[in-house]
Amino acid sequence: FYSEHKNVSKLSYAVESLKRAMKWDEVTFGLEYDLDLFNVVAVESFNMGAMENKSLNVFNTSCVLADPKTSSDENYFRVEGIIGHEYFHNWTGNRVTCRDWFQLTLKEGLTVFRDQQFSGQINNCAAVKRISDVLTVRGMQFKEDAGPMSHPIRPDSYVAMDNFYTATVYRKGAEVIRMYDTILGRDGFRKGMDLYFKRHDGSAVTCDDFLAAMADANETDLSQFARWYSTSGTPTVTYVTSFDKEKGLFVIGLSQCSRSDEPLFIPVALGLLDKETGEEVLSTTVLELKETNQTFTFPVKGDVVPSILRNFSAPVKMVPASGVVNESDMAFLASHDTDGFNRWDSAQQLYAAAILKVMDGKEYDETLDLVLSTFGATLNDASISDDAIRAYALILPGESTLAEAVNIVDPPAIRNARKFVKKAIAKKFKSELSDAYEKLTACVEADTVFKVDGESTGRRRLRNVYLGYLCALNETKEEQIEAAKIATAQFESATGMTDKLAAFNCLVSMSGEGESAREAAIQKFYDDANGDPLVIDKWFACLASADLPDLLDRVVKLTAHPDFTLKVPNRCRAVILSFAASAAFHDDNGKGYEFLGDMLEKIDKVNSRVSARTTASSFLSWKRYNEKRASMMKAQLERLKAMNGISKDLEEIVVKGLK
Length: 659
Prior knowledge:
Number of strands: 12
Structural class: alpha/beta
Radius of gyration: 25 Å
Helix content: 40-55%
Number of helices: 24
């Protein structure tokens, strides 16, 4: 492993992660490393996360350096996942590579799936890892599917290939690989992988070759499944259920709609729970949806609640035929479902229903009551032994996820409605949250040895969820003082970056009586960083995404800070992308859009890949906003298109965005 001398002490976790990845690949897929030496070099100014050059992996420092003082648990997870990803490319990318760029998902989708499986299994946190991965798919890839850059996982054309290192190629590509695993089973998938390597080791191949290996190894016809490779957009599966008490039959009807001219092969994992007892009466069963409309019937002794699309068995949107989620069923599943992912997802749907009703000015009392009941049950459920699972189950859906649930996106309205529901929860359970927080604080302080195992990271995650709720109570002077006090106490006593960063994120958005605590924390975090680039990146990112009314003015000042530069991708993204992901970016005066347009003109002259990706994530979905915001966002695209010397990368994105 190679890095600047000052960073050598931060390489040990990456080294151990590589050892674990090598061992996992040997055990899981029988794949051994084929050389005597494996080299890794850490580079600070690097556009990508990493690059899998044979025996000389090049890494962005943010993806390989880690220590407790400068790295959060999320940083550790990222290091482990990307170290695994690049190593796994030795077989799925190097030994067997792509015939042409159109087959990029062949190596990237497959290798993302492999690194996801590795991270979930090696840390014994499969359900938590699955939740994290699906959040990315729904928050990033679904958004891409809905915009002008929508493309199949195997695109049929490109201008600048750099623009197709996308969430679709990587993340949706991984979901397609996962569907093979779901349909064929773990043993069947391994048989397909073995045949794939036997046939193609040392060759440049296509996605069709991979599909053929899976089909032939399992003596099954996957020709219909191949349509996933050429279909853009997010398919929708609509469901309707009924129960015939006299015959003792539960019936579920599924209908699919996609951009494919013919039906896709969609695996829908289903479980059934007794409506009275909550016991599982049908364990996870994979329904093979191959037609536009299909009906499936199950004998049952009593009425049941269906748990549909367990473990997110396909990258689709699952919606009830009525268009309205059964909130009582969601509350039931949030308390009883045996599938960890669906238990979380059911609570998310219920939380989202309340937030969207608040935003739309609809009657929300009954839904909010269900939310409070569900939250309270999860908070106090002694049967939940995994703190990380409890933490995820208590977190409200993110703003990007909520944006995908509406037709016209209004980011400030989404943020305000989410804050309203969060405060309602915090008020209702303040005492319980405070007690739970203090209990976990005692555990954290008693644990003097830093660990990145599932138990330790779960405990930190849950404690910081509690902190977030407690700091959400900030309307009165007394509440502001109390919130600042608890966040400052954690910030100053934190022995690791995870807890320090969580407290800092709370503090940077404080105002009123919390303003002095905010300013003190901002200065201390910067001073404590002592010039460490990755810590300074965190400082910039937190400040650029703070929930403050004058955020744009603050971000403009950040771009004039001595430590800010457009020439280092990590630093540029820390400020520009963080601000563009905030609700303040969408202030209806349009100044946020103008600021980003100004910055993109400068960035494109320095780094066209960063300018293209920033535009793609920020302006391309302009048609989903109201007329005023849409016209202002479109104006910035037109401005960029007319720019002298526009790069090929950026031009392709802008032209597609204006169609």
